[in-house]
Amino acid sequence: MIQNLLQTPIEYLKGVGPNRADVLKKELNIQSYRDLINFFPNRYIDKTGFYKINQLQRNSSEVQIVGKIVHMKMVEQKRGKRLVADFVDDTGKMELIWFRGHKWIRENLKLNVPYVIFGKTNWYNGVFSMPHPEMELVADYKKNLRTAMQPVYPSTEMLLKKGITNRVIMKLMQEVLQQTGLKFSESLSTQLIEELKLISKAEALFNIHFPKNQELLAKAQFRLKFEELFFIQLQLIRKNMLHKQKIKGFNFEQIGEYFNDFYQHNLPFDLTNAQKRVIKEIRGDMGSGAQMNRLLQGDVGSGKTIVALMSMLIALDNGFQACLMAPTEILSIQHYNGLKELCEEIDVSIYLLTGSTKTAKRREIHEKLEAGEIDILIGTHALLEDKVKFHNLGLAVIDEQHRFGVAQRAKLWRKNHIPPHVLVMTATPIPRTLAMSLYGDLDISVIDELPPGRKPVKTVHRFDSNRLKVFAFIRDEIKKGRQVYVVYPLIQESEKMDYKDLMDGYESITREFPDFQISIVHGQMKPADKDYEMDRFVRAETQIMVATTVIEVGVNVPNASVMIIESAERFGLSQLHQLRGRVGRGAEQSFCILMTGHKLSNDSKTRLETMTTTNDGFEIAEVDLKLRGPGDLMGTQQSGVLNLKIADIVKDNSILQSARYYATRILKEDPNLSEEKNLVVKNAYSRLVKNKTIWNYIS
């Protein structure tokens, strides 16, 4: 009964009608009663209690205080004046401030008479102040009726233009809650509710919209956030479990000659403990009989490639082929050269296939691959073409996975009758909370240790006014035999922005360093020209490489020890971190210099500060997540998964961990949710899977 009522189109709710319904649908995607109930306030005006001045916290919250104005004065400031009043109660003193409307306020405010004031507090120079407070005489306040905590809903210009104010939404919410009679079916088991001391579904939905007090609001928020995150985790963990049950994988039990010979005689350095742990996890997966689906995270230079190679050698030991797919031609060539060198002493045939592979060579690769004469094939998207047929592909490694869509990855699966094992690698550290939410269906391995002997890159921030000193530093480094990257954010001049564009930069560097050779690389060059320029730099024929972010992923030039990033304020944190990872690959001390103008936003300052204080990719990723939010961080393609209504995976990290713990525990005990106690969860879960989005089912 309640389910049917919740599906009622929104235009049938009293106070809506067709015109308002159109605006609600377009602006807020509210199509039905259920959508309205799951449209949550983003803040509340709390008029439940009164604070004393000595109880105020430095958290700029909105508070209500009773006291008297004892003194008023005008204060001159750079532009105009401000009116400042001393406001006291029996515990202390604070200031009330007005920047406009002085005359009216001075004429109408009464000294030494009790007022109720309400507003946001600021803490400055050891004093609390409240700008432009709402004020009411205590005598009048006592006569009025009011609700203690008022919800404030997200709004848009169009809603306000059409007269759908916060008050209107509150009225609609009251109407819909009355019509449902608060008879919401429960979606969590009694066991969960008791163990976590959660309030009921109906209580939570009522108190999220019309909280009786702070305590009930906190309980309602916790209950609804937990539920939202719990069902996301349930979905992801169940997907992973079903994947392991249903999708059989090749059983690579053999650890044979290729792996052992390489490990004992050809490994150029000792593996770190983190690398050993990850290889062990991968071996466990490949020998389990289920298809491996593992995400390997490791900071720039942590040694993911050697882990990938040793995983491929396990496939070879079991009579299977392996492939490695990279997002760019430059990166795939680099992987090819690196692996070829590592495998020189062991008899492994490695080939490279990219968009610019010549037709005759391509034909040879196709034939040899199908005949099983190629052990490892490295390449770009070219590997996905239907013509590329493996004899028996056992392991597919995907580098920088966020550059590939789901459909592209699925194409690799179809390269064998049983899907190959999949190892997905990324050098963009993903914060733990995000990994749990977006890749909760993958098993995750982390290399959190750099190889010994790697010196951390020294990072400094310099303003454009220091440019001559920076140039002198570049000259000194080149004289020591080092090479330098100079990276620009744009390729062509943008009319709106006065950032130096690449060609300008190239010309000024050429003028500044006439005695050095300079390469230039950007995204609009032909691949062959790009490779030629890159190659000159790799072979140290050029000393300076002027480039756009094309070089962000993977180019390995151990002799390059200086990275200059122009207009660094225009780059995101993860991009800055990736770019910095291009240096520091040799034994010499490396440097990253972030160049900016003097005008910087607060976010830019935070990014630059983070870069200069830490080299830890995971720490940087956490700051990035706080600055940009999950949607921006993952790109729209994946952030749809996290279209959260009430939870915030940054702020609600602890609730997310708890939700994952309980979802895992329930599924371990009862994988099909068939036990009596879990039927409530199963019903809610079934509605969720049918509707594809978390909140469509949840009331």
Structure keywords:
7-stranded mixed β-sheet; 7-stranded parallel β-sheet; 699 residues; Rossmann fold; alpha/beta; 42% helix
Beta content: 15-25%
CATH class of the domain at 258-447: Alpha Beta
Helical proportion? 40-55%
Number of strands: 22
Spans with pLDDT under 50 lasting ≥5 residues?
493-500, 633-641, 693-699
CATH level-four homologous superfamily name of the domain at 258-447: P-loop containing nucleotide triphosphate hydrolases
- Write out the strand line-up for the largest beta sheet, numbering strands in chain order: 6-7-4-3-2-5-8
- If you average the pLDDT, what whole number results? 86
CATH fold topology of the domain at 258-447 = Rossmann fold
The CA-CA distance between the termini, in Å, is 12 Å
Q: Helical segment tally?
A: 26
What would you report as the Rg, rounded to the nearest angstrom?
Answer: 31 Å
Pfam families: DEAD, Helicase_C, RecG_dom3_C, RecG_wedge
Enzyme class: isomerase
Catalytic activity: Couples ATP hydrolysis with the unwinding of duplex DNA by translocating in the 3'-5' direction; ATP + H2O = ADP + phosphate + H(+)
EC number: 5.6.2.4
